Amino acid sequence: MPHEPQDVNAAHDATHDDQFPVTGDPLDEALLADAATWHAELPSVEQFAARMEPLLSSATPAPMLTPPADDMATDIGAAFDSAPTPHPTAIPSRSRRRGLLAIAAMAAVVALLAGLFQFVAPRRGLAPNANRPTASAPTWQSSTPWQSSKACDPNSYWPDPGNNITLNGMAMVAPDDGWAIGTITHYGPVYGETVLLHLVQGQWQRDPLAIPDVKLDSIAMVSPTEGWAAGSISEQNRLDLFLLHYSGGRWTRVDLSAVTPEATQIEDAFPVKVVMVSPGNGWLMANTTILRDPKNPASRETSLLLRYHQGAWSVILQPPVTSTTSFWDMDSRTPDDVWLVGTDYQRLTPVIARYAFGQWSVTTQTASGQLESIAMLSATEGWATGEAYPGPNGSESQLEHYDGTNWSQVSLPAAFAAVTLTHVFADAQGNVWIAGVQKTSPGTSGRIVNKPVILQYRGGQWSQFPWPYPDDEYLRAIASVAPGEVWAIANIVHTRGCAPAAVTGLGQGVILHYVNGVWSQTILP
Amino acid sequence: MRQREEAATQPEDEPAQATEGSAMRAQWQDEFARLARPHMAAVLRTAAALVGMADAEDAAQEALLRGMRAWPELRDPTALKTWLLRITYNVCMDWQRGRFGSDRHRTQPLADDAAGLPTPLVSDPGASDHAARLDLRQALNQLAPDLRQAVLLRYYVGLDATEIGIAMRLPASTVRSHLRRARILLRAALDIAENPTPTLPRKEEQ
Known about the structure:
The complex is a heterodimer of chains A (525) and B (206).
Chain A: H1 8-12, H2 26-41, H3 45-56, E1 73-75, H4 76-79, E2 90-92, H5 100-117, E3 165-174, E4 177-184, E5 194-200, E6 203-206, E7 214-223, E8 226-235, E9 238-247, E10 250-253, E11 265-266, E12 273-278, E13 281-291, E14 300-309, E15 312-316, E16 325-334, E17 337-344, E18 349-356, E19 359-364, E20 369-378, E21 381-388, E22 396-402, E23 407-410, E24 419-426, E25 432-440, E26 449-458, E27 461-465, E28 473-482, E29 485-492, E30 495-496, E31 503-504, E32 508-515, E33 518-523
Antiparallel strand pairs in A: 1-2, 3-4, 4-5, 5-6, 7-8, 8-9, 9-10, 11-13, 12-13, 13-14, 14-15, 16-17, 17-18, 18-19, 20-21, 21-22, 22-23, 24-25, 25-26, 26-27, 28-29, 29-32, 30-31, 32-33
Chain B: H1 2-8, H2 18-36, H3 40-51, H4 53-70, H5 80-97, H6 128-141, H7 145-156, H8 161-168, H9 172-190
Helix pairs in contact in B: 2-4, 3-4, 3-5, 3-7, 4-5, 5-8, 6-9, 7-9, 8-9
C-alpha cells in the first residue's frame, strides 16, 4: 500500500521515494486541504463499487470472455473464402461473430434505412467486401429500445468484441488507391499497435508492418509510392515521436534522434499530425514536454514543429506561446506556410499560430473556448472548429473561417446548432467537410444516443450529407476522390448496457465508400 | 477450420470444448473482482483527476472492465494496482482525445463547478476559504498538463512518484522534477512564501 500524503514520517525520511508533502509548508498544507475537499466532492467509492459489482461478477450471466489475442491469431486469407487475397501476414483479431444471423440482421437494418435515405444494397463492384461475411455481429443493428435498469438484460453489459481497431487517419491518392491508419486499442495497458490499411485493387489489406506500443495518428501520402505516417511510441518508459516513411512499397521507421531535442517527451493526450504539401515539403506537429535547459525553467517548450525540406526533417523554433498552450491540429497548403490551432489553457482562449516564411505570428482570441481542428484549402482560405464557452454553464460548437486576412466566427444553419463539431476536413477536390455528433438525451431507455452528422460545404452553404448508418459510429476522416465519390473512415463504439452503468466498448474501425449516391461499409476483420 | 465452423453457427452458440474454458474464465473474473476492489478508490480518483468529476465513474468503469478482460494476461496481484492505473491513464487519454471520434478533444482542468466545465473567471463571491480554494484550483489549472497531472496524482490521488511514473509512462525522477517545478509555479501564482523554518533539510536548489 503506498503511503498516504498525511504520512509525515515518510515525508521526513530522507531516503524515501518522495520529498513531498512537506509538513508545515504552506503550499503543501493548502494542497492537502484542497485534496480533502476534493475527496468529499468525489463520487462515493462505496457506491461505485456497488455499481461495478454486477459488471465484474461471474454470477452475472454474460457471453464468454474474449480470450487473449494469442489464441485468436488467424490467417486473414481463411476469413474471406470468396475471393483469393494474397495476404502476407496474420492479423490477430478478437473473436468473430459472423453468421447468417448477423448478415440477415444487417440486411434488415439496411432495408429499414432504405426508406429514409433511398439506400440501395451495396453492389459487388463497389463494395469490396459486400459478399463476405461480416467480421463480427454489428451490434448497432438492434433498434429495439433499451429496457429500464431493472429489466435490463445483463448480457447487454458486454460490448460485443470488435476488431478493436481505432482508425485515426486516411489518405487517398486515387479513387482506388489509399491508406487508412490507426492503432489497436488493447484492454490491457499496452499502448497500441501499428495499423496500416491499404486499398489496392479494390480490396483493403492490412500492411504487414506491425510494431507494438505505437499509436498512429496521421498519414500523408504524396504519391501512390511515397508517404509519411506519424504518431507516438511507448518505449523505455517514455513516449517518443514515431514517424514512418513509405517508399519502395514498404513502411520503415524514421530515426529522429538526431532531429528532435534530447528528452523530448510526447504528450499522449494530443494527436501527432503530419501534412505533406508536396513530395519535398511537409510539416509535423506534436505536443511535448521539453525542458531544453534543466536549469532554466523558462526554456520549457510544449510544442514541436518539424519541417520537411530538401530531403530532411528539422526542428522549427517553437511558437511564442505560453507553456499552458496546447495545439490540437495543424494544416498547410504551401511549403512556406503552416497553421496550428489550439488552446491557451491558462486563459482558456483559442490560439491560432501561423509560421510563414520563417516567422511566427500568434493570434489569441478573446472569447473563451478552444479550437480543435483546422483545414486549409489554400494559403488564403481555411476553416477551423472548436468549442466556445459563452457562459458559466455553456458549451457550444464554434466554426471559424479564414478569408486570407482574418479568422472570423461563422454560424451554421440553425438545424445544426446542437451538433457537436469534432473535425473539419478539406480534401484535394476542394470540398470542405465537418464530422459531428448529435447527442440525444437518455429518455426512458436510459441510453444516450449519439448520431453521426456529416456536413458538407458547397456553393457557399453548409448542408447535411447523407449518412445512413446508425448510432455510435463516429466519422474520423472523409475525402472526395472524384465527383460524387467519397471515402471515409469511422469507428463504431458500442455503448451498451443500462443507465447509469453503460459500458463503452473499444470500438470497431470501419471504412466507408460513397459512389453513385450509395454508401457501403467495410467492417474490418 | 475453426473459423469456418464459426461462420455457420449462431453468434450466441458456445462450442462444447469452451465450457471448461468458461469455468476458468469465470474463476479469473471473480479473482479479478476480489483483487481489484481495494484499488477502486485509486482508479476512481485518478479518473476524476484526469477527466473530471462528471466523467470519473464512467472512465473508471471503463478502466476496470478493460482490466477484467485483460486480467488473464497478468494474474499477478502485486502488479495489479499500477497495471490498473496504467489502464486508467490510457482510458483517460482516449477520453481526452475524444473517444474514438465520438466527442470533442478535451483536456480537463480541475473543475470548480458541478457541471465540470472549465471556468476561467472567478465569479463566486463566497467565503474566503471558498475563494482561496478557487484561487488554488485556478492556479492548478494554469499549470501545463503534465505538471498539473503530477500534482493531482501526488496530492489528490495519493500516488507516489513511482506509481505516477508507471501510470504516465515517465521515470520517477521526471515525476519528481515535475512536482518541484509545479510547486515553484504554484507558489508564485498564489504568492505563497516558502516556509521560513522548513522541517526538512533542503536537498537541492529549487
